[in-house]
Design brief:
Rossmann fold; binds uridine-5'-diphosphate-xylopyranose
């Protein structure tokens, strides 16, 4: 079976390499020429643990090839995974123009039966639009199926998630499409849920919306903990033991970011709206998430009074650890606010500084986590990278001007700062 993957972002590239690893012959295509050049030369365009090694391995084995011409990619493939971007328009609606464009090109290059698999996160009924588009633009009697097979991988653990998923959702309209997708995922040991395409599409949006809701819920409760002297970590543990709630995704902090959760919550809200349904719950989820930035700035100001000309050290710029991705990262909003307040910013991140420099050229960047602390009035932690989880109190005291730590990711126990004359402000807990 020959598989074409159109769109080689986080989802597309991970999918392409995983399918190659499973033994299929995979053809990857992306319209970004620079990215294609890198991939052809065995260079992974994103930082994702294990992906660069897998790229080299699969290229050497001959299981993956990168083809510039999208029409050719379609013609030589039996199965085509659509993994192009689905960004958000100004009004919150998902921009599906790339999906539409690929569908048209597929239509023009159909040369025998093909299975078109939509993997990008798309609104319910998109598969029907893809089907209609292909029918409309293919002048011959087109022979194809459209399936929905949403991806649930997380950045930072993309490969692990792909080979060890909680479930594989297969949305199909024909027995043939079902058999092909079951064959593709034969070697992956996970529950396989066979549903209709609309159901599969909703499963994806509902999953991400639910995850975002869980985070905003715990963040809302964390505000109450701060007001009343309770401890959000213990509250999360206490509610998480209930198997109906579950322990994961209950870390209070500076809010969710990344390419998926913010975009998907907006899209799902929009989908509800166009169907005249009250999805305002999701609007509140986003509002609570946005207010995390205000909360963090309030903490900083409460500790430092004025921020003008104060040096603020930042640990962590990526939206989560183990990725260089800064899309919708809280760090971007915080840095903008700090610049408005005329603070002096010195930032460090193990992987995301190059991406951050593309947006903010005029802030300082440090070589390591301690360099940025020199003469700083406060340290603000925005990403819970492992290397930030140990801290040398003496070095802090030697380097910092005033000993203030605002921890947007709740990584330390209050105890380690007790009696050290260091003011530690975590989220949803009171340490001083
Ligand atoms: C998410 C979904 O988890 C994944 O299934 C989907 O395929 C893509 O979107 P991802 O965006 O890679 O994955 O990261 P995730 O681990 O879900 O974290 C999203 C954001 O939520 C991060 O900014 C993270 O810091 C934040 N988060 C997560 C919290 O603030 N608290 C938590 O308890 C968990």
């Amino acid at each position: 079976m020959k598989i074409g993957v159109i769109g080689l972002g986080y989802v597309g590239l991970t999918t392409a390499l995983s399918l190659a690893k499973l033994g299929f012959k995979v053809y990857g295509n992306d319209k970004d020429k620079e990215k294609m050049e890198k991939l052809k030369n065995g260079i992974c365009p994103i930082y994702e643990p294990g992906l660069d090694e897998l790229l080299v391995e699969m290229k050497e084995k001959g299981n993956i090839e990168f083809i510039d011409n999208i029409s050719e990619t379609i013609r030589i493939s039996d199965v085509i995974f659509i993994c192009v971007g689905t960004p958000t328009n100004e009004d919150g609606s998902p921009d599906l123009s790339q999906v539409e464009e690929v569908s048209r090109i597929i239509a023009e290059n159909l040369n025998g039966y093909k299975l078109i698999v939509e993997k990008s996160t798309v609104p319910v009924q998109t598969a029907q639009w893809i089907k209609r588009t292909i029918k409309l633009y293919s002048h011959e009697n087109a022979h194809f199926d459209v399936a929905s097979n949403p991806e649930f991988l997380r950045e930072g653990s993309a490969l692990y998630d792909t080979f060890n998923p909680d479930r594989i959702v297969i949305g199909v309209e024909s027995e043939r499409a079902k058999e092909i997708l079951l064959k593709i995922y034969e070697k992956i040991n996970a529950p396989k849920l066979i549903v209709d395409v609309n159901t599969a599409e909703i499963i994806k949006h509902a999953s991400n919306a639910f995850l975002a809701m869980k985070i905003s819920f715990i963040n809302m409760v964390s505000d109450l903990c701060e007001k009343t002297g309770a401890d959000i970590k213990k509250v999360a543990e206490g509610i998480g033991y209930d198997r109906r709630i579950g322990r994961e995704f209950l870390s209070a902090g500076v809010g969710y970011g990344g390419y998926c959760l913010p975009k998907d919550i907006r899209a799902f809200y929009y989908i509800g709206k166009i169907h005249n349904l009250d999805f305002s719950l999701l609007e509140l989820v986003e509002r609570i998430n946005n207010s995390r930035i205000d909360r963090l700035m309030e903490k900083l100001k409460k500790a430092l009074w004025h921020l003008k000309n104060k040096k603020i050290a930042i640990w962590g710029l990526s939206f989560k650890p183990n990725t260089d991705d800064i899309r919708e990262a809280p760090s971007i909003k915080i840095v903008k606010r700090l610049i408005n307040e005329e603070a002096i910013i010195s930032a460090y991140d193990p992987k995301a500084m190059e991406n951050f420099k593309k947006i903010f050229q005029n802030i300082q960047y440090g070589k390591d986590k301690y360099e940025v602390l020199k003469d700083a009035h406060a340290l603000v932690i925005l990403t819970e990278w492992d290397e930030f989880k140990s801290i040398d109190i003496q070095t802090i005291k030697k380097l910092m001007r005033t000993y203030i730590i605002v921890d947007g990711r709740n990584i330390f126990d209050c105890e380690i700062f007790r009696g050290q004359n260091i003011e530690y402000y975590p989220i949803g807990r009171t340490c001083i």
